[in-house]
C-alpha cells in the first residue's frame, strides 16, 4: 500500500485536460473546476447525464495523477464499499484531505449513497479533515419502447435527496451530445489517420449519438472497417 497523501491536486492540469479531451461539455467543465478549486473543507460534486456523454472520462482525467495516493479512493460499485475498511480509514485518519469517487450509480442508488456520504462527512469532520466526494450518475431509464433516456425529473430528485446534507454541493449536468461532438470523438479516436468526409458520413449515419453519445466509437468504426 502507498502511504503517501495527496494534499493538493493540479487543478490547472485537470482543467487543461478536461477542456481538450472532454468534448461538448464546456459548462460541466467550468462547474467541476469551480468546485474543485473551492476553499470549502467539505464538498460534493454530483455529475449526472446519459450514456456516453463523458462522465466516466471526466473522472478518469481527474484521477490520472492522484489515484496512487493513500487518500484517494475510486469505487465502481456502491455495494462493495466498506466504510470500516483499513485503507479508507487510513486516508481519513492520517491525511489532511481525502478524495472519494463513486462511479456508475443509478436512480436505485439514491438512498444508499446518501447514507454513505453522510457517514464519510461525519468521519471527516470528527478528524478535522477536508473531504471531496465525487459521485457519477447515469440517469438513463428504459421506457416502454425499450429506448433509454434521462428522466426529466432526475435533477430535482437528486437535489431533494441531498438537500439536508449541509456541505458545498454542485449538481453538474452533462449535456446530450450531437453529431458535431461525435465527429470530434471520431477524429480523436483515429489519431493521425485521416478520415475522409465519405467515411465520416458513413460513421455518422450508423451511430445514434443521442442514445449512445460517444460510447463505443472505437468498436463502431472498427465494425464499419474504417480502421
Number of helices: 10
Report the biggest beta sheet as strand number plus sense, adding barrel if it closes.
Answer: 5 strands, parallel
Distance from N terminus to C terminus (CA atoms, Å) equals 40 Å
Fraction of residues in helix = 40-55%
- Beta content comes to 15-25%
| Major β-sheet strand ordering | 2-3-4-1-7
Which stretches are low in confidence, meaning pLDDT under 50 for 5 or more residues running? none
SSE pattern, N- to C-terminal? HHEHEHEHEEEHEHHHH
How would you describe the shape? Answer: globular
Could you tell me the number of beta strands?
A: 7
Broad structural category: alpha/beta
What is the alpha-carbon Rg in Å? 19 Å
Mean pLDDT: 89
InterPro entries: P-loop_NTPase
Protein name: ATPase AAA-type core domain-containing protein
Description:
The radius of gyration is 19 Å and the shape is globular. It contains ten helices and seven strands. The protein is of the alpha/beta class and 227 residues long. Helix 4 (86-94) links the parallel strand 2 and strand 3 (97-105). 43% of the residues lie in helices and 19% in strands. The protein starts with 10 loop residues before the first helix and ends with a helix. The longest helix is centred in the middle third of the chain and has 17 residues, at 110-126.
Summary, kept brief:
It comes from Pieris brassicae (White butterfly). InterPro entries: P-loop_NTPase. With 227 residues, the chain is α/β, with parallel strands linked by helices.
Topology:
Elements: H1 11-21, H2 26-36, E1 42-49, H3 55-63, E2 72-75, H4 86-94, E3 97-105, H5 110-126, E4 130-138, E5 140-142, E6 148-150, H6 154-161, E7 168-173, H7 179-190, H8 197-205, H9 209-212, H10 217-223
Parallel strand pairs: 1-4, 1-7, 2-3, 3-4
Antiparallel strand pairs: 5-6
Helix pairs in contact: 1-2, 1-3
